[in-house]
């Protein structure tokens, strides 16, 4: 099952973004990795975030994938799940194949896909012809739409990430 995860960090991202990628690779194998984007914090005053999306294939149940993401966050200094605040690492389960799931704890597809440019742009980059399970539109079409989210994004390279701390 193709699974998409959003990665974000605004505390020492040069350390925590590579750590997240290593941990996800160790757990799930091959990763498709989007461009890195620097973007302002949304909803609070804080340092800019580094964001990206990774996609991997897994047969693990959705609950195990979510638990693995929380374990990786905790191992990398994420102490609490407050939505509006700086964080070492934020791993969000965006997509789990074509599954539409909402049990009050896990929701996929995640609403962030159409709410935030730092989620939709990298997803459209990795899977332009992928179809949003609820909306029935491709990620490229959603990104090209006039109603696409328009937060500022700056593409950065890995060398720049190393100096982002």
TrEMBL record:
<comment type="pathway">
    <text>Cofactor biosynthesis; tetrahydrofolate biosynthesis; 2-amino-4-hydroxy-6-hydroxymethyl-7,8-dihydropteridine diphosphate from 7,8-dihydroneopterin triphosphate: step 4/4.</text>
</comment>
<dbReference type="InterPro" id="IPR000550">
    <property type="entry name" value="Hppk"/>
</dbReference>
<dbReference type="GO" id="GO:0046656">
    <property type="term" value="P:folic acid biosynthetic process"/>
</dbReference>
<keyword id="KW-0067">ATP-binding</keyword>
<dbReference type="GO" id="GO:0046654">
    <property type="term" value="P:tetrahydrofolate biosynthetic process"/>
</dbReference>
<dbReference type="GO" id="GO:0005524">
    <property type="term" value="F:ATP binding"/>
</dbReference>
<protein>
    <recommendedName>
        <fullName>2-amino-4-hydroxy-6-hydroxymethyldihydropteridine pyrophosphokinase</fullName>
        <ecNumber>2.7.6.3</ecNumber>
    </recommendedName>
</protein>
<keyword id="KW-0418">Kinase</keyword>
<feature type="domain" description="7,8-dihydro-6-hydroxymethylpterin-pyrophosphokinase">
    <location>
        <begin position="83"/>
        <end position="94"/>
    </location>
</feature>
<keyword id="KW-0289">Folate biosynthesis</keyword>
<dbReference type="InterPro" id="IPR035907">
    <property type="entry name" value="Hppk_sf"/>
</dbReference>
<dbReference type="GO" id="GO:0003848">
    <property type="term" value="F:2-amino-4-hydroxy-6-hydroxymethyldihydropteridine diphosphokinase activity"/>
</dbReference>
<comment type="function">
    <text>Catalyzes the transfer of pyrophosphate from adenosine triphosphate (ATP) to 6-hydroxymethyl-7,8-dihydropterin, an enzymatic step in folate biosynthesis pathway.</text>
</comment>
<dbReference type="GO" id="GO:0016301">
    <property type="term" value="F:kinase activity"/>
</dbReference>
<keyword id="KW-0808">Transferase</keyword>
<comment type="similarity">
    <text>Belongs to the HPPK family.</text>
</comment>
<keyword id="KW-0547">Nucleotide-binding</keyword>
<dbReference type="Pfam" id="PF01288">
    <property type="entry name" value="HPPK"/>
</dbReference>
């Amino acid at each position: 099952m193709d699974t998409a995860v959003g990665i974000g960090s605004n505390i020492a991202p040069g350390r925590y973004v590579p750590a997240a990628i290593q941990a996800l690779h160790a757990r799930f194998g091959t990763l498709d990795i989007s461009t890195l984007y620097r973007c302002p914090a949304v909803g609070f005053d804080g340092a800019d975030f580094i964001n990206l999306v990774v996609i991997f294939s897994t047969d693990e149940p959705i609950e195990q994938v979510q638990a693995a993401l929380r374990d990786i966050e905790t191992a990398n200094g994420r102490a609490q799940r407050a939505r509006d605040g700086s964080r070492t690492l934020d791993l969000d389960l965006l997509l789990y194949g074509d599954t539409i799931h909402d049990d009050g704890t896990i929701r996929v597809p995640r609403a962030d896909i159409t709410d935030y440019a730092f989620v939709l742009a990298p997803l459209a980059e990795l899977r332009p012809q992928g179809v949003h399970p609820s909306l029935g539109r491709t990620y490229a079409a959603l990104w090209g739409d006039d109603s696409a989210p328009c937060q500022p994004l700056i593409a950065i390279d890995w060398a720049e990430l190393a100096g982002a701390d």
